[in-house]
Amino acid sequence: MHPYQEDPLAGHPPPVIVPRAEHSISRANISPNALKVLYRLHRSGYLAYLVGGSVRDLLLGRRPKDFDIATNARPQEIRRLFRNSRIIGRRFRLAHVFFRDAIVEVATFRASPEAPESPNDWHEGEEETAEEEAATEPLPARPEEDVYGTPAEDARRRDFTVNALFYNIADFTVIDHVGGIADLERGVIRTIGDPDQRFIEDPVRMMRALEYAVRLGFSVDPPTVEAIERQQALIAEASSSRLTYELLECLRSGSAARIHEAWRRAGLFSRAFPDLPLDTADSVQVLEVIDAQIAAGSPLADASLLGGFFLPRFLALAVEETDGNGRVNNAQLLARLRAIIAPAAASMHLSNQALHLMHQGLFTLTKMVRPPDR
What we know:
Layout: E1 16-18, H1 32-43, E2 48-51, H2 53-59, E3 68-71, H3 75-81, E4 85-88, E5 94-98, E6 103-108, H4 130-134, H5 144-147, H6 151-156, E7 165-168, E8 173-176, H7 180-186, E9 188-189, H8 195-201, H9 204-216, E10 219-220, H10 222-231, H11 240-252, H12 256-265, H13 269-272, H14 281-295, H15 302-307, H16 311-320, H17 330-347, H18 352-366
Helix pairs in contact: 8-10, 9-11, 9-12, 17-18
């Protein structure tokens, strides 16, 4: 019997296992740091899988941004294996293994289903200092048998089929519990399980479905599209920190203009970011400029990315505040700038530093579009 069939999930067919000769993933394209973690886990007797978007991207011939790992080792066992690691997270404990130039995230296989997201939950992978953890009221403990699960359970609790593929370092096979390989070949984004239920569990998945479709050049399967139409209002209930994270991921992707258009058409953007003025043709042009910068290899700071949302409106204010001699009441203009940014800064929980940099960057632009004071 193949070892991956020893603990099948009841009611589901066994996984499709693709041998090395039949897929395109090469270890030469995997991060050396991730390989070190995979091999140490494997040699210590644990299952060690490359998971998620990295497997998807490798199969598509793309360069992954991150290389995440799943294992049956528990967090404290991972910590003992890697001195250069740290246990993080509140709702679900996982490990970050630190290298000089990268962090490799290692998670224990999770059980399915997961509890719905709470607005106070941290985004997966977000670090938490000891001081912050001590100052935070602990979440109710869950028995380990309710938290950790089998590889099959871990695959089926993920969001989309194309993100639930495993690469096994033990024999270099690709393991597919959910039909992800077929969907990759078809170019389709499809939820795992009932799409309405998956979006109720985590509304941010609606944004991700459309984002993945744009970035990969895929379509979204009709039941998933229909579920987004039914559940779109739920996006307003997602935590602001996660929404801001998704927005920044969009802006860094090089496809921000098209992702924003997909979110807008689906009714998600205005509900997720009601205080962002991004519905004009000028604003779309700003996103296209951001995409061009990313494509040219010139990434922008987060404050600049977020500040771009307010650029058209602020430049209009600068014109309003400019007299016939080209002079501007700087104090009045800065006050109006703060007034248009403040609602979004509050609803998105932007840091004071980000807010200051946005003010500073936008205000500096006015000096480039008007003559100097005489």
